[in-house]
Amino acid sequence: MTTPLRLKELSKKEDRFTHGHRMCSGCGAPIIVKMVLLASEYPVVACSSTGCLEVSSCISLLTAWKIPWIHSAFENAAATIAGTETMYRALKKQGKIDKEIKFITFCGDGGTYDIGFQSLSGAMERGHDMLYICYDNGAYMNTGIQRSSATPFGADTTTNPAGSKIPGKLQKRKDLTKIMAAHNIPYVAQASPAHWQDLIKKVRKAFEIKGPKFMNVIAPCNRGWRSRTDDAIALCRLAVDTCYWPLYEVENGVTKITFKPKEKKPIVEFLKPQGRFKHLFKPENEWMLKKIQEDIDHEWELLQKCSVVEEKAKAEEK
Amino acid sequence: MEKKLINKKVLMKGNEALAEAAIQAGCRFYAGYPITPQNEVPEYMSQRMPEVKGIFIQAESELAAINMIFGASATGARAMTSSSSPGISLKQEGISYLAGAELPAVIVNVQRGGPGLGNISGSQADYFQAVKGGGHGDYKLLVYAPWNLQELWDLTMKAFDKADEYRIPVMILIDGILGQMMEPLVQTSYKQPKLPKKEWALTGCAGREPNVIKSLYMGEGELEKRNYKLKEKYDRMKDTEVMYDSLYIDDSELIVTAFGIAARIASSAVKKLRKEGRKVGLFRPITLFPFPEKEIEHICKGNRRFLTIEMNMGQMVEDVRLSVNGKAEVDFYGRPGGGTMTPEELYDVIKKYM
After folding, report:
1. Less packed terminus of chain B by CB within 10 Å, N or C?
2. B8-240 belongs to CATH 3.40.50.970
3. Contact state of B56 with A159 under an 8 Å Cβ cutoff
4. Assigned CATH for B245-352
5. pTM of the predicted model, to two decimals?
6. Overall number of domains in chain A
7. In the sheet that B55-58 helps form, which strands lie side by side, from edge to edge?
């Protein structure tokens, strides 16, 4: 029986990712992990690639994971969990195991968009029964805020520092959610911890689908975003309300927007509270703000064109 | 904005010092990827390279970075990449290809504890990987192991010259301690020695015969010939490129051998013991390949004993044993897994072997 999607009920459940980890206050990653693990009653085996979550959740001999959890290297979380899942299927076939176990990876954007992309793509194409969750905070935060291919256009990082000549990152971020949808796997979704019901619903849906699933979840990082720790969830909400991070899913090739903001907010509302975009508000960089808004408008329009909007979604959100 | 250096003494961080030295030596192409404890190298390069009209690229992986170096070097550019142990493991394929294609490059390994993800403390556990090949096939790197930031500055510049002179990848093998520490160094200006023109570079073949750069030799006997050619180069390096340093060797009964940061820590202990009248000396290889075999063999006389100290489980000690060739006892003391020894600890250890 699944727990009703209410805080009152969910909060009674035992956390499968507990206190004692060393993530920063206001970090999005542990919030996302907790929500995902609260989503269902299935036994879960998880894998993480090298990153903040991995380093901070298994200091010395201590662990915050109350589920079986494995880490191997930076570039191969999808391959590692693929091996584990395959062995599970073999054991099931041999009758040595009968439980229905779910396999998840929790990886950052560096380990997903960049160095881990080859193993992710391979695992999805082979069709492992797994859910790959990327917590996307838009840079290599663990090693000191270096740019990744998830870093948004214009952002300041330690390897594309904003200066008088180069105003931060000049490339657009890779649209990984769409790239994963192009793998023609049964389920791909984009989510935000600010819309927790939407996130949990997506995880539950993913668990009921056999085969490879991918979810991209925006994760606030106050160190890298140069924002206030208590703004974490508010920023995630703004990311959705400005359509910087639209909430949608692609199920068997059909795109559906799962939450449509009543009123699309201007992107500056999302950018302004973040120090990594501070330089964009200088007069000489006005063109960048304009470009960011135009790009978002364009992509939002494209997304709406190819998707079925679920009117109910908005109502359920409240 | 070219920085004019007037032999100024500055306080710098190791990773930044090596990056600046590379730029001074004419490195205009750097590709890297984040990994602790070498992140200051790409970060510094990302700011400095645009100032000198050079190229900084953050690759999507270490594998991509090393192959970008392959591409840049093939056009004749002075190219560098850096990483730390796990990342250097990923680069091994590219390093083997660089060696096979005889392309100059400078690779910096700011070592951390291993195996696997290990930790981010300084370590010397990649000695074998650096010195004995690392990747597949018969090849060697010229390996420099500086022990302070001044030497790091000087050897980084030298590395580019030697890479071009021999058409080989050169490795600068330091560790997290040297990479992260700050100390004064004199920013000496770079003077390029006379080097052969890069006539082999792929620069567009209009008006000349096309150049070919490759490591694939499928014809009968071709690869064998190629390997002999490489060996001839490595032998030449053994004759002319060996660098070492020594302290109180002449009347020493016990000679401590160590490289890099371990040698620096050991030197404090050795000096203290000398003050107490103990006959102990220090021998420090600066090039790990070519290894100062003859020099060690030369100082191996009488009842002299050797004690090799490393921040690993015993790697260079094997080369010391090969060098003394059974003529002296060689003991070992090491701290693996990112463990760092203190001068006091080494004082006690060395005393025990006297």
Report:
1. N
2. yes
3. yes
4. 3.40.50.920
5. 0.94
6. 1
7. B55-58, B29-32, B79-83, B105-111, B169-175, B142-144, B287-289
